[in-house]
Amino acid sequence: MPEILPRQALTEEKYPPPRVAKLLGRGTQTIFRMARRHKIPTTGEGRRRTYSRDSVQQLTDLYAADLSVSTTNGYLFAFKGFTRWLLRNKRMGDDPLTAAKALNAKKCRRHKRRVLGGDEFQAFLAAGGGGAVFRGMTGSARGMIYLVAVNTGLGAQEIACLTPGHFSPDYSRLMLGAKETKNGEDATIVLRKDLAAVLHRYLEGRSTDQKIWPGLWYKSGAEMVRCDLAVAGIPYRDSKNEVFDFHSLRRQFVNDLVRAKIAPKVVQTMARHSTIQMTLDVYAELSGLHELEQAVEALPGYHRVAQASDTSGQGGAVGGTDRPSTHEP
Fold first, then answer.
1. How many CB atoms sit inside 10 A of residue 47's CB?
2. What are phi and psi of 27, to 5 degrees?
3. Alpha helices in the chain (DSSP H)
4. Whole-prediction pTM value?
5. Domain span at 63
6. Domains in the chain, number
7. Residue 317 falls within a domain, yes or no?
8. Is 129 found in the same domain as 88?
């Protein structure tokens, strides 16, 4: 993939973090985490940290290679809208992007997420609940965040805005406004009774307008999960090249509902998906062939009818099908 930022555009020898953030259109902390993960050299610490020209170029190349298919499809959609406007207003003779097609996001996923088994997930929760402080977030706080996420399907940013005032008096309901949800719609989420009791004890005595989990932890949610996975001895990326990150908690929520044989329409509503296709095609997944085996065993046993008919001298005919004629030739 071509570089986002041409090398000749980098005219300075050193770049402070705000300058790099502006060039790449990312947050300074996001860039710092990327540099640390890929061991890109920097000089200085804190506000005195700077990136060399080569370091900025390395970051540029990484972000160019790290664009997801959904992101590139979004760029294509925007570009095609612009060229259609140019054509419609006779600013160009023909549309050069007419034949350009979006990529299949299912076939070209940057990160294929997975869900954890029951024992694995319990170990992950225990690791989070008893872990060390991460970016000001205690282990017990992280454990509660994971518990809320896997029982509601809420995203990190949605959880970060929660206050005790978002809950009903008996903690059986969680209400979010349109400005607080990812899909821009009001949401009322039903909570398990045992989770409601845990939250009631956890939030007792707190101000109704005080954020439960303040700070910017949600911007590094994937890294937070990764640390607790390491403590639990669970790989972030498994042998199938599938990862478990913060968004996987939402996938875990949907998959648990599907495996509990909840009606698809109910699952779609609880996941707050716009279409049932997104629920079943993107978030729900089979855990193995045993689920298919269970499904076929649940089919009606029509073969038993055929065997019974055969032993009664009907030549293998099944009730409701054509029977041998009883008329003389």
1. 8
2. -75, 155
3. 17-24, 28-37, 53-65, 69-88, 118-130, 139-152, 156-160, 193-203, 221-232, 246-259, 264-271, 276-277, 289-297, 302-311
4. 0.64
5. 1-94
6. 2
7. no
8. no
